[in-house]
Design a protein that fits this description.
This protein is α+β, with helices and mostly antiparallel strands. It folds into four domains: about 1-155, Beta Polymerase, domain 2; about 155-240, Hydrophobic Seed Protein, CATH 1.10.110; about 245-360, no CATH class; about 375-420, no CATH class. It has 20 helices and eleven strands. The strands form four sheets. The chain has a five-stranded mixed beta sheet with strand order 4-5-3-2-8. Strands 1-9 form a two-stranded antiparallel ribbon. Strand 6 (about 100) and strand 7 form a beta hairpin.
Length: about 425
């Protein structure tokens, strides 16, 4: 099968800018190929490339052609490059063709250089195991390589693993299965369903790479179908034997829907710093779970300690009196941390959410963005403490209302002077 890029001037010109690795074979692989075969168009401005040779060396050549630098290089000699083509940001992931073997299930793989055919057989699902050779010169079309029958599985809308031990070798693939199920509307075939149940029973989840599992949580949040993906986690419960309370329930479902709506209020919650969406999701999921199980869940999901601490301190605050359940009050933005705003809103239900939205809508002279600066700006200045970010934004808001600060430049100068006066490095 040959796939033409006629009618796609953006991608035609993009591939003509990609230098071919001298004396080596290179390929387009992964989701870009899947979407071209299935939809005749890519769905995302990101692309995976594979080369039978040194991926980093080729990446440096590609980066030079776009006038950028190679990004992060992994221990497996893969690299990422963020480029701008015709004004559109494109993420390029480059990897050497390789085979993986797992001496210990769930452990780090032993990687060996290979041909493209061997590389495709190591991939997670058949629909992601197709490739387009990068021909030189580029003729404007691709000849499909499909050694494992990915096209047939696309037609059947099936997700099929390529080895019965796939989930045991790499348990993070369980979460990739859930993500692709909801994104593509596909279902696992019989072999994959049996392997999933086996992995659940033998505790494969415990052997997941914690850093890659955290990456997968972030990937799920970026999906348009993120709520269905999260509900799939709760229904399938790959952690069932270790986190019995973390399951689907009507209150948890409502909290996840509330989380999805509230993440649109970036200026309220972004002062929490990096991973604020992930942190709020964890609050929605772990609310009501016993402390010991919450600690175990945060550890098993690979949550960075700084994020885990926010979740623990928010859900299990140290109190010298009886803990009172608060509902949203209109002046709440001035009084408590973003994470407690979130918890009070999801605890209070529809009435609290409606009151919150009304307050936002009525604040037309400074609707939730009462300063020119945001939490992200303060993070760039080296301030990463959630309480300090919130305090500084409130002080800036007061100074703006008093007419003391009147521009973004003045706000930045004030922040930098304030940090210096406290003896901290900005």
């Amino acid at each position: 099968m040959r796939i033409s890029l006629s009618g796609m001037p953006f991608w035609l010109s993009f591939f003509r800018r990609i230098p071919r690795p001298p004396g080596r074979k290179a390929y387009v692989v992964g989701g870009w190929v899947r979407d071209m075969v299935m939809l005749r168009r890519p769905t995302r401005p990101e692309i995976d490339l594979a080369v039978e040779g040194d991926a980093v060396q080729w990446g440096e050549s590609i980066a030079e052609s776009f006038g950028v630098q190679v990004g992060r290089v992994s221990e497996f000699r893969t690299c990422k490059i963020d480029v701008l083509h015709d004004g559109v940001p494109v993420r390029i992931d480059i990897a050497p063709c390789r085979t993986d073997s797992y001496p210990v299930p769930g452990g780090m793989p032993v990687v060996t250089a290979s041909s493209i055919h061997e590389d495709l057989y190591r991939r997670d699902f058949s629909v992601n195991a197709m490739a387009f050779p990068l021909e030189d010169p580029f003729q404007g079309s691709f000849l499909l390589m499909d050694p494992v029958g990915g096209c047939e599985d696309l037609a059947r809308k099936e997700l099929r693993i390529l080895s019965p031990a796939s989930f045991d070798d790499d348990p993070v693939r369980i979460f990739r299965l859930f993500r692709f199920q909801e994104r593509l509307g596909f279902h696992p075939d019989l072999q994959t369903s049996r392997a999933l149940e086996s992995a659940r029973l033998n505790g494969a989840f415990l052997r997941s790479s914690k850093s890659r599992l955290w990456d997968e949580i972030q990937a799920a949040i970026r999906e348009e179908s993120r709520c269905p993906i999260i509900f799939r986690w709760l229904l399938e419960k790959p952690w069932e034997n270790f986190l019995p309370s973390l399951k689907m329930s009507s209150p948890r479902r409502r909290r996840v829907f509330a989380w999805d709506r509230l993440t649109t209020y970036e200026s309220v919650f972004s002062p929490m710093g990096r991973f604020w969406k992930e942190t709020l999701l964890l609050l929605a999921l772990f609310y009501g779970i016993p402390r010991q199980e919450c600690d175990r869940g945060l550890r098993l999901l690979g949550v960075p300690e700084k994020r885990a601490k926010i979740v623990r301190e928010s859900l299990f605050p140290v109190s010298f009196g009886k803990r009172r359940e608060k509902t949203y009050q209109p002046d709440i933005l001035l009084n408590i941390s973003p994470q407690m705003i979130f918890l009070n809103l999801v605890r209070g239900g529809a009435e609290s959410l409606a009151s919150f939205k009304k307050t936002v809508a009525e604040a037309d002279h400074h609707p939730l963005r009462e300063t020119s600066l945001t939490g992200r700006d303060l993070i760039k200045e080296g301030i990463d403490s959630s309480p300090e970010i919130g305090n500084l934004l409130r002080e800036i808001r007061t100074l703006r209302e008093q007419g003391i600060l009147n521009s973004r430049r003045e706000e930045l100068d004030w922040v930098r002077a304030r940090v210096r006066s406290r003896g901290k490095n900005p």
